[in-house]
């Protein structure tokens, strides 16, 4: 059982690290370059400047490239590989219905579609030629977004709610965050795809978790394991309990239990994240504004963009590029 506790702690730590990385990358777009600059500064006394420069360029490139997209695809291949190779066959033998077994594959296809849409759609890039189009979409709140502000990098007038993304090197209309998992900014024009992407990813992980758990429960019920007894190291006999059962299942189906632990934790994290972004959609606040709001508390910051839950949700489907008359 000690091994199982360690294993679950390890899984939780891996997923927590991924979550923290996502949150941190959403807060500071220049996080990877800053982080590696700090690391190279610390080791600057021992490593020559040319080597440091090369290492910095490689790591900076990796973080700004499709590294996380590749990691995300690799995890999907591993989970679906295990599901197809073992769980699917066992579930077929146990006469699980075919539509329920095909559901994760269907969700995978839909999820891939939203992934492509989210990563390929222009999030709302602001250029000199189109800046006028976005400039009056939202009023300036005078606290977080000041009238007349200009981006020092792009040299464009910054519309309210926009932000410069250090990774994409451009200003984005209704900037939410830069997502390393889709390697694109999430802004006014692709946030609807991002929401659908996270929702289908959550459903996909949950459906695999549900089917795998149902299979293991069936195995336990059919084998009458719960009515059995086991002998411990001291030779004493005990009725089968939950801890023995988990250990037994882990030893019998190690890859399946490992995958189940991973998809269960992933489902919980993704579902929590989906609820968070859905909440932000309902109050018409971007992740960028939500993170920054605590910094502006002393200046009595107030979200002025909410127009009621329904209108806020419509705005995600039909992003604003001109002022709305109904705004309060
Ligand atoms: Zn800019
Ligand atoms: Zn970006």
Give me the secondary-structure category.
mainly alpha
Distance between the termini: 59 Å
User: What do the pLDDT scores average to?
Assistant: 85
Q: What is the strand content?
A: 5-15%
Number of helices: 11
H/E series, N to C?
HHHHHEHEEEEHEEHHHH
Helix content: 55-70%
User: What general outline do the C-alpha atoms trace?
Assistant: elongated
Unreliable runs: 28-33
How many strands, what sense, and barrel or not for the largest sheet? 3 strands, antiparallel
**Largest sheet, spatial ordering of strands:** 1-3-2
Q: How many beta-strand segments?
A: 7
- What is Rg? 25 Å
The small molecules bound here are: zinc ion
Please characterize this protein's 3D structure.
- Among the domains are: 1-65, no CATH class; 66-123 and 178-282, no CATH class.
- It has helices spanning 2-27, 31-42, 49-64, 67-93, 98-120, 131-135, 191-222, 242-252, 254-282, 287-293, 309-317; strands at residues 125-126, 163-165, 170-172, 177-179, 184-186, 229-231, 237-239.
- The radius of gyration is 25 Å and the shape is elongated.
- Helix 4 (67-93) packs parallel to helix 7.
- The longest helix is centred in the middle third of the chain and has 32 residues, at 191-222.
- 60% of the residues lie in helices and 6% in strands.
- With 328 residues, it is mainly α.
- It is built from eleven helices and seven strands.
- A hairpin with a 4-residue loop joins strand 4 and strand 5 (184-186).
- It has a three-stranded antiparallel β-sheet, with no helix packed on it.
- The structure holds zinc ion (2 copies).
- One zinc ion (ZN) is lined by residues 165, 167-168, 178, 185.
